[in-house]
Amino acid sequence: MAFDAIRLSDKDNVGVAIHDIAAGGAVALAELKLTARDAVPLGHKIALRHIKTGEKILKFGVPVGSATMEIPAGSHVHMHNVKSDYLTNREDHWE
Amino acid sequence: MQGYLRKDGRKGIRNHVAVAYLVECAHHVARAIASSFEEEGVQLIGFPGCYPSDYAFGMMKQLCTHPNVGAVLLVSLGCEEFRRSELAELVAQSGRPVKIAVIQESGGTKGTIALGRDWVRKALAAIADVPRVPMSFADLLVGTECGGSDGTSGITANPAIGVAVDHLIDNGGSAMFEETCELLGCEAHMAGRAATPELGREILRVMRKADDYYRDLEHGSFGGGNITGGLSTIEEKSIGAYAKSGTRPIAGLLTPGVLPPRPGLYLMDMVNDGGVRFGIPNINDTATVVEMIACGCHMVLFSTGRGSVVGSAIAPVIKVCANPITYRKLSEDMDVDAGRILEGRAGLAEVGLEIFEMIREVASGAQTKSEALGHQEFILTYKTFEPLGPSCLPV
Fold it and tell me: Does the ipTM exceed 0.95?
């Protein structure tokens, strides 16, 4: 049982690296395997499938932001391809 | 599980004598009384303020009549404005032995310490035969808190606590989560989990209050260290804390000191009503733990990554360590090693079940690490809350 990332909920489209993952390396989760397109440090997110522009990033089954570009499976998911749906739109948020 | 049956029908998992100072000026005397009964587990609590506070009075009332408490000694200087006779009357009505020791009327420091020790000795004997009765999960309320968090907290210990909370709810028990200020960005999801649409609107109301309050304080919550750790948005950071609440429906919304009327999962609003009045609502983790205990929590699940060592007065604290390196450094302070998940030595479900089993053991009398080490952290400060609206609590 040596995994590289965990999925916190079945609904999630991202996994969380449980140690530093090298670009091009094989990534094993309990329920699937994929190849890392980028380096993914410990605690960072990796796309478990292709995520479309504008699609919600789901972690623990909860939206944690939106994709700002097409994110292929195995990509590092972070500031460069995700935006907050909260801080960018606070005035409308509470309406 | 066996509980200590109280007159109001609630069952305690401990049978403590509590010594409570009613102003900071009585703190030393109260501590001197309590500390001579360390072996017997006598608990020290109190309110330091001299000026009256309905909030603090209500909190002290709930703590002194907490199911884990069997008898109460109130230590008063004499001139503070705390309504000591009214509190003593409420404790007496709850069927507990209670005594007021007024320092100004009892020979000062030495005389009051002698009087207090004598009374505690008798109280310990008097409550030794409180009946123990079978206890089920339906009698149990468990709080959740995280402190000294790091990048591992949100991916190991907090979700594992969420799994344990789900088990507890599925077995008819109750749990609480809190710190609305740490949950910004999760409000829509939380509202969707509310038992009724009206409760969902109340959750949105208190979340907006938390957002406004911290904005007025100019306290941001998301920044550099979070981003380095892999968190991309504030809502992702909040999810880490939110994971402690598990996945079951939210039955109600509480404020500190309000008891859940029936089993289920509850959110506690800990941000003052009426705008910024007394500064940062909760100045440390213990403030939140005490508020949950005042809602009747029998014990608290406490997740930590960096390695907090705190326990609490009145209710045992189970420490769930998120980071395997921290666990190795502080294993004598940690009850659960959730960092095994990071090392591939256990799954979330397995650690969650282990926490759930530990809830049962601690409820049956097993001591937690912080309890055995004598931790009794406690703090109570000024706040104000408006009464909860009718949609907040289940009928």
Answer: no
